[in-house]
User: Fold these one by one.
Assistant:
Number 1:
Amino acid sequence: MNVRTELYNLDGRGREKDFLSAGLTQLPSLYFCFSVLYFGFLAYWFFICFQNKKSVHRIHLLMGVLVVMKALNLLCAAEDKHYVKVTGTPHGWDVLFYIFQFIRVVLLFTVIVLIGTGWSFLKPFLQEKEKKVLMIVIPLQVLANIASIVIGETGPFIKDWVTWNQVLLLVDIICCCAIIFPIVWSIRSLRETSKTDGKAARNLAKLTLFRQFYIVVIGYLYFTRIVVFALRTIAAYKYQWVASAAEEIASLAFYAIIFYMFRPVEKNEYFALDDEEEEAAELALRDEEFEL
């Protein structure tokens, strides 16, 4: 004997079935809207790179690939949730979602580490300690994505579900801590260089840029790991989608800020400085302490 059970809500007219819970039924539209925004973002990024071809570095191309993966990840998430909402099953879209999510997360942490090291736009190579950070972060992200898939496709009814949640949390914390080190190393290296190379204004500009990058990364990690978790915990069941919306808004803001800060420009306003500004920068470097 075969038994089939269906759990669903009915729309306001009581006609159409909705297999998503009341708090998640807005997710297909939400994810689709953000995927469109990221595709528009990608087009604008390619336009900026084309306009400044002489200043485009490999990191800028990698940043473009990151936006592609983010947009495709959201598009697959929208289709996944849509089919679950309409039919109760994802029709294979969940597989594509997990594939693009894996690539996107690994790329995101890689790009943050590479920008933090100044790779390709400050220096053409990575130091050994920076390579070690990547060798730690990438395998850990593979493990984190496996844990995410197990958590997403199962539930508390399996034996090791709680263990997988703990693994995901631990790995995520380790990765978030690890990606901060290259930024700190770059700031310290620039401070040491500024004392000897006689280019105070340029070094002050770079120090300011990397310090801002450090603050933005810390803010993004704090919001998406702590604030979003708090929203998911305290939000009423009908408003569970608000946490996802907050996370996507924060991610879009983070991408926009980082891409603006490290965009390819032929004449960077930071470096178009005269002698008086150079002297002022030297004084600022003597007085300013970039404590982290």
Number 2:
Amino acid sequence: MARNIATAANLSNGSRGRIADIVLDPREPAIAAQAVEEKKTYLLYPPAMIILELDFCELPQLPCLPPRHIPLSPAYCKFNIATTPSTRVTRRQLPLTAAYAFTDFKAQGQTIDHVLVDICRTTCFALSPFNAYVVLSRGHGRDSIRLLRDFDDDLFIRHPSEDLRIEDERISQLVEDTERKWPECH
């Protein structure tokens, strides 16, 4: 969702779900059989509403709809364009974002139905195996995760942190020293 509708019921900007049904505008002509076969059609009017199945919803079940399903109608949005003279625009659209992207930090702790992952090297910051683990473990399994583009194998071969590697070696040395000094305790 792209607009706060009822924040107390978790119907707010950022809520996630799936489109369960599309209710067409009554002025829309019947969809041709060929378009149904091809699973592609062009609408003359925006849908009258959609039925959205939310991942989390704290509203009571609405009559004639399954649990967690809500009707969502197009909303009007007005804004000014900075021109001379100023132009006022009114737009009618569904308050939805068809897909979205977020960082590995935002994805932590979430399970996402379908994940498209980009673990390619960036020019802005370095990725670590920790980042890759977080994003690659967000889906339900390997069938629900896709890689956007090829990645550098070195991401999984090199040690994630030189400081961490040095600390691991120091701790391993302390374990060996302890076992040598007190062999009866091991």
